TrEMBL record:
Protein name (database record): OLC1v1010378C1
InterPro entries cross-referenced by the UniProt entry: AMP-bd_C, AMP-bd_C_sf, AMP-binding_CS, AMP-dep_synth/lig_dom, ANL_N_sf
Pfam families associated with the record: AMP-binding, AMP-binding_C
Pathway in which the depicted protein is active: Phytoalexin biosynthesis; 3,4',5-trihydroxystilbene biosynthesis; 3,4',5-trihydroxystilbene from trans-4-coumarate: step 1/2
Alphabetized UniProt keyword annotations: Ligase, Phenylpropanoid metabolism
Any single GO BP term: phenylpropanoid metabolic process
NCBIfam families: PRK08162.1
Amino acid sequence: MDEFKPHLANSCPLTPLTFLERAAIVYGECTSIVFNNVSYTWSETYSRCLKIASTISSLGIKRGDVVSVIAPNTPAMYELQFAVPMSGAVLNNINTRLDARTISVILQHGESKLVFVDCYLKSLVLEAIAGFPKGLTSPMLILIDDSDGNFSMSSGVDDCDDTYEGLVNKGNASSDTFQWVRPNNEWDPMTLNYTSGTTSSPKGVVHSHRSLFIIAFDSLTNWSVPKNPVYLWTLPMFHSNGWSYTWGMAAVGGTNVCLRKFDAGVIFKFIASHNVTHMCGAPVVLNMLANSPHAKPLENPVHFMTGGAPPPATVVLRTESLGFTVSHGYGLTEVAGVVVSCAWKPKWNLLPASGRAKLKARQGVRTLGLTDVNVVDPETGRGVNKDGSTMGEIVLKGGCIMLGYLKNPEGTSKCMKNGWLYTGDVGVMHPDGYLEIKDRSKDIIISGGENVSSVEVESVLYANPAVNEAAVVAKQDDFWGETPCAFVSLKETTVVRPSEKDIIEFCRARLPHYMVPKTVVFMEELPKTATGKIQKFNLRNIAQKIGMEPALPSRM
């Protein structure tokens, strides 16, 4: 059959932007976005995105130029996930909790031509731009209006080129005068996302229209998302474009309930008032919901996809007791969403709650959109034994994997080799073919020649009824090389506060001796990133100072 060749009719570039176009037809009168007193339909959202895209084009932004967005989960933030690439530009979401220096580095490295900034973050971005070297052209600045009406726009427009709503009003949604810019090739870049912990050597992950189409479609299938779900945005949209559910909600005509900041009380209120069906977030979000004084059993089940770190089985158990149905997925910025998930088997429903929770803490098997996943010896590249105990590096391959790191060919070739993406995550493969993460390679603790998984130790700590949060890092030791150092915060309801000795003895009764923390540090709250991940690099710095200073301020 050599006579068959690609045809214009069957080789159109794949892009998730077409989801919005279809949503305007199929779900035109359905609610697309809700934010306090503001709401839009899918027809209105499509029109607004076209207007923004047309205005961006009129500002001289060309195909392939980078347009940055620094905003929380507001309607404008959601619309820009479509509008920016619909103008032909590459969308660059920036973490709102980064400092001005880091934002400055990102804007310079990505050569951003235009920045949309939330009104409450304007001063941060102006400080970042002020840090540009002399002679470097500053990007245009568009101020995103405050939908709450609490921000004085009369003073806020100063130092900005225009406002977001100003661009909407100037835009044109007529197909006679503006056609949104479709990719010439599905491999064309669509997004640029910087990995957490960006410093002077940023790692800008570039994804194509093709990879994002695949992951957005795959994420819906993997989670069995039905038509017209109600999705509450507790996961920051700037984090891997909300694991691609920004575009996915358009595909199924979902209602996007936007939330400017995380508040457990507001979340429980919104779940009830908006009939929320789906949410995403890091395990720390699950923990905060389970331990919130506002926590109460839900009237209807809410599907919760968690990822970013292995959720302790105890946390899964507590959350599900409230009525959440927890699904566990694994992904990273380089794959733009969930690519491994704990596909549930009906027979597991017969297990006791603790057994089900332990299984749900495993990452699972590849999703349909991923070609393959394996755990390999990083030195030889060979797969490790599927015994649930032999650790190796997790590797992935599939159509949703990034194009590479922007201006960093060395970094790209280091992690993309031998036909695989090397993740830097350490895991094991169970006999049933299910993957389980044990740690980041940098988080493995080597004590007396033995590998200690910080995740396993943390799971035991979370089982302590007094513990609210837990993290374990390596502490240098003259004799053992490294020993586990535990950082914990306690629940507000704790009456009898455990001592360091109490925590150590609790672990000793449940872990091999070499895995037991030798040091325990109590903190009011563990430091976290904007996506809810505990900042272990900060804790490592604290751990190394223990014993070297007269006192540790955070220790009780």
